[in-house]
User: Which sequence fits this backbone?
């Protein structure tokens, strides 16, 4: 795949409108997911880990019990790219399921 | 926990009525789960693996892409016990989520 | 990626020599992995699930406690292909780790 | 299980000697695990998630690619307890495997 290109602030604003629950803070795309308990949280993380590996694009993320905090950025591009929004959408799709 | 006791055929019939989607065949409690794709299937398996480990009661299961086949029995009791129905209910709870 | 091509019996024999622990039976590439316990078995499965998803090539597999049985074939090609040997090698790499 | 009791500083020092790689910082037991890649990292996390769920004692943890940072404390006890060292030992056992 071609190298992803860093999105402009305007492009990011546009994409955020279609990407429910995510926000940009400190240069990263972020969302906190809250689910029922640890088993649900880790199941969600596993599905997302599979998507991430398939995209070869991995999250910075943390978990405490029923909460999963996901931060996305594209190190190679020095900012947020289309790849980050694709992974964010995948996370939303898994969460809404 | 006290050793689980093998349920009678009548007890199993009663419990099956409250345990949607499961059936008994060849002495095991069985259900096939069909989900959206492999990532969803494996996420579901992971959540169920956590429940199983917490109960120290593990499934015989197989997976092909979007399908997870689960078979439950309690080897120590030589048949189906309350433990199997508890794990079956946990699986249903995760699947319906 | 180009469609994988079904390997000939001779090609399969050659590749099996470099792929420790695997054998062909009923037209599938197979290996049984035995590990320490359920937590180890399911951790191994998770790592392999990630590799499989990244290859978009998924195993037929089953698990009972500390045992994972993996069967590989390429449905689209009607037999065993290079993809199956790549996933088999990935499984060996994770197992030997 | 009986409520775990917060360990004294001396008890923690003693236990740390037997728990390779862990240290106490800001009141938590911590270790960073570095593995081969994301698939290995997430497989390790999955095995540890199973142990954690079985103990009903869950880590605060984060992951970036091949790195897993684990922080342990027992909220109910307001500090580090035997439970934390048991989970730390389980993590070491999985990592060394």
Assistant:
């Amino acid at each position: 795949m071609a190298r992803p290109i860093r999105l402009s602030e305007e492009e990011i604003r546009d994409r955020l409108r279609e990407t429910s629950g995510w926000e940009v803070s400190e240069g990263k795309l972020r969302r906190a997911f809250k689910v029922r308990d640890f088993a649900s949280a880790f199941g969600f993380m596993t599905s997302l880990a599979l998507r991430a590996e398939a995209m070869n694009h991995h999250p910075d993320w943390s978990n405490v019990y029923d909460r999963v905090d996901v931060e996305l950025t594209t190190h190679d591009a020095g900012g947020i790219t289309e790849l980050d929004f694709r992974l964010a959408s995948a996370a939303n799709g898994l969460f809404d399921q």
Q: What stands out?
A: The interface with chain D takes residues 46, 49-51, 53-54, 56 of chain B (CB under 8 Å). Chain B is about 45% helix and 20% strand. Strands of chain B lie at 23-25, 28-34, 60-64, 67-72.
